[in-house]
């Protein structure tokens, strides 16, 4: 049996005055993200940018696909890791305007592991690969940008042209896209 | 025997039957004694975290069990919708602190009981506060808060030569309910599974695929989520984030959701549902709270008195359809980032001479570490600090200058902990600096 305390033992009296930020230890989310970041194994098409090296919870991922519809493009994603990581996934937004069936004009990304299929065993690396895959295989089945998805299923050549047009900067349909070539 | 004593002996007669004689269910090593009741009533300090549905039950249960040194901490104020089950509060208390009203109520009703309220976040206090308790019992609804107190209690553990000093353990009893389901668990930090060991066990928040929400909504929830995720950021009617407690916000989302539901022939969008989806409300059931709190209070009693074998270590309860309950032992995770990081002491001869690169060299060349490209972070003044990470280019460039700084120049002190991760190990290593010639005052 574990004897946790003797009956006479008084615990040391604590001071009850609030003292914020006097913590000596990193939070569990912080520990986990530190591990994730250290173990990041990026494909050669991806790069990260940390604006503040002390803040591993906020960073950007830059993807420059070297094949597929989106080769020669450069796409920036912002990552925000919350205090409940890895119970909850990080918030990921696409900062580059892109003509893509699974990314909308507000930068919302439809990737299953970013929402309904997130599991605490997944890591930042899993998301990086997921995002990279979106550029290699845009998925017209579950679109966020319905027009783009329709073009992709009905006319792949036109889709390719539209992607090129958007990446060079210009109008596709009624929407203007900023230039995002590498 | 004075009259007063007699009255009190009568009052606690039921406890004395359990504590002053052995019984068929008592712990094999239990030594009955009248000192135990004394301990509960005059020495044992219990912290109740949360004064909500579970908290009200817990404080009441513990107070009536003879615990007199109770503390309760809660950052919330009382709302109308709490009153059906949080029975320490009345209509006149709406808007007041839950912790303060609950403490005052118990202090008035239970003779001799001293509940000390703390109207603040658990994060507002540091280890000097948490160290004073014998046992912590939680009635929380948030995983973040559970992980925080879990981490705090683990940080209070004392290791000597890698052996855990058992007197530094503060047991944590965690209760939780969701509708007709609930759980209670006993956590002995450093010994049994902690909150982070079993993080995968918590049900994920209900989410819907973004594309379904955007294109093929079928449920009223899909319409509400659409307005919440897509329409609000786009139109941002008040230029701020959604406040689930602002009726104007809820009304706006309700109206837009109705429009969208109409468009897709979906029925069932109501104001209450909108409120529920936006605030993630799960209906609370008073009887579930009562059961789970009773289990938790019993565990506090068992741990405080050692009279019975404590729960080992996880109980689930479900009364959706009849009653189902089951206990099992959740296992400690070997590489748990919260509780497996036992700090290893690292003696440092001269911290004003030793540079960061010397430390890294030590991790790479010493036979006991043999690392390849360790990443080092630490925690200084309540803030994370990256000392050096070579594997990320943008971080490497900005932390390179740290390599030639001495440990003192980097702000490290005697006792500072450095987290070291390396591809040679799936575990994170925690190193605690021990300045050998500690004549340098920091």
Structure description:
The complex is a heterodimer of chains A (182) and B (442). Chain A is an alpha+beta fold and 182 residues long. Helices cover 25% and strands 14% of the residues of chain A. Chain A has helices at 28-38, 124-136, 146-154, 156-168; strands at 46-49, 58-63, 75-80, 91-94, 170-172, 175-177. Chain A has a four-stranded antiparallel β-sheet, with helices on one face. Chain A has a two-stranded antiparallel sheet with strand order 5-6. In chain A, strand 5 and strand 6 form a beta hairpin. In chain A, helix 3 (146-154) crosses helix 4. The longest helix of chain A is centred in the last third of the chain and has 13 residues, at 124-136. The radius of gyration of chain A is 22 Å and the shape is elongated. The N and C termini of chain A lie far apart (66 Å). By secondary structure, chain B is α/β, with parallel strands linked by helices. Helices cover 34% and strands 17% of the residues of chain B. Chain B has helices at residues 3-11, 13-19, 35-43, 53-64, 98-109, 127-130, 143-155, 210-215, 220-235, 247-263, 271-279, 286-305, 356-365, 393-399, and strands at residues 45-49, 69-73, 114-118, 135-139, 159-160, 163-164, 172-178, 181-187, 314-318, 324-328, 344-348, 375-380, 383-388, 417-421, 429-435. Chains A and B meet through helix 1 and strand 1 of A and helix 3, helix 6, helix 7, helix 8 and helix 9 of B.
């Amino acid at each position: 049996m574990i004897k946790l305390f003797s009956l006479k033992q008084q615990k040391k009296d604590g001071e009850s005055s609030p003292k914020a930020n006097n913590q000596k230890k990193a939070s569990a989310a912080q520990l986990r993200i530190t591990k994730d970041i250290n173990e990041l194994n990026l494909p050669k098409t991806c790069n990260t940018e940390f604006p503040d090296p002390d803040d591993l919870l906020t960073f950007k991922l830059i993807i420059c696909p070297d094949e597929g519809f989106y080769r020669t493009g450069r796409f920036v994603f912002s990552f925000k890791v919350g205090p409940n990581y890895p119970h909850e996934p990080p918030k990921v937004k696409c900062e580059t305007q892109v003509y893509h069936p699974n990314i909308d004009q507000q930068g919302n990304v439809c990737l299953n592991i970013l929402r309904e299929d997130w599991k605490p065993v997944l890591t930042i690396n899993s998301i990086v690969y997921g995002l990279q895959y979106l550029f290699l295989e845009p998925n017209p089945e579950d679109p966020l940008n319905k027009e783009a998805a329709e073009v992709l299923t009905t006319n792949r050549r036109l889709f390719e042209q539209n992607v090129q047009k958007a990446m060079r900067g210009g109008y596709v349909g009624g929407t203007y896209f900023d230039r995002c070539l590498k | 025997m004075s009259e007063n004593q007699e009255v009190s002996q009568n009052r606690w007669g039921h406890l004395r039957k359990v504590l002053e004689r052995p019984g068929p269910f008592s712990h094999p090593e239990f030594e009955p004694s009248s000192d135990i009741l004394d301990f509960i009533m005059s020495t044992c300090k219990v912290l109740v975290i949360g004064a909500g549905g579970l908290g009200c039950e817990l404080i009441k249960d513990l107070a009536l069990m003879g615990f007199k040194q109770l503390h309760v901490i809660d950052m919330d104020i009382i709302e109308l919708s709490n009153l059906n089950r949080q029975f320490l509060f009345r209509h006149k208390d709406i808007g007041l602190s839950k912790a303060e009203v609950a403490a005052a109520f118990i202090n008035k009703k239970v003779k001799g009981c001293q509940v000390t309220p703390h109207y603040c976040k658990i994060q507002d206090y540091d280890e000097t506060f948490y160290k004073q308790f014998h046992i912590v019992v939680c009635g929380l609804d948030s995983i973040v808060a559970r992980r925080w107190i879990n981490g705090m209690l683990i940080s209070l553990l004392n290791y000597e030569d890698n052996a855990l000093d058992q007197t530094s353990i503060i047991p944590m009893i965690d209760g939780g309910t969701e509708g007709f389901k609930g759980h209670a668990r006993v956590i002995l930090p450093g010994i049994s599974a902690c909150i982070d060991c079993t993080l995968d066990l918590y049900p994920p928040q209900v989410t819907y695929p973004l594309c379904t929400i955007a294109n093929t909504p079928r449920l009223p929830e899909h319409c509400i989520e659409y307005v919440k995720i897509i329409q609000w950021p786009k139109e941002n009617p008040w230029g701020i984030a959604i406040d689930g407690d602002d009726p104007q916000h809820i009304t706006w989302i309700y109206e837009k959701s109705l429009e969208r539901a109409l468009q897709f022939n979906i029925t069932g969008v109501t104001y209450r549902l909108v409120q529920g989806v936006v605030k993630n409300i799960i209906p609370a059931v008073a009887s579930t709270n009562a059961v789970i709190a009773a289990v938790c209070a019993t565990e506090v009693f068992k741990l405080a008195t050692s009279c019975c074998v404590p729960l080992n270590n996880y109980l689930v309860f479900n009364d959706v359809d009849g009653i189902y309950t089951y206990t099992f032992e959740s296992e400690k995770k070997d590489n748990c980032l919260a509780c497996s990081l036992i700090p290893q002491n690292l003696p440092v001869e001269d911290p004003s001479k030793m540079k960061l690169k010397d430390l890294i060299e030590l991790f790479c060349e010493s036979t006991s570490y043999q690392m390849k490209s360790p990443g080092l972070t630490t925690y200084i003044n309540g803030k994370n600090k990256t000392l050096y990470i070579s594997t990320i280019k943008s971080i490497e460039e900005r932390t390179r200058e740290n390599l030639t700084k001495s440990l003192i120049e980097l702000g490290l002190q005697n006792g500072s902990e450095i987290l070291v991760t390396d591809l040679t190990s799936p575990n994170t290593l925690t190193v605690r600096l021990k300045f050998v010639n500690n004549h340098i005052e920091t």
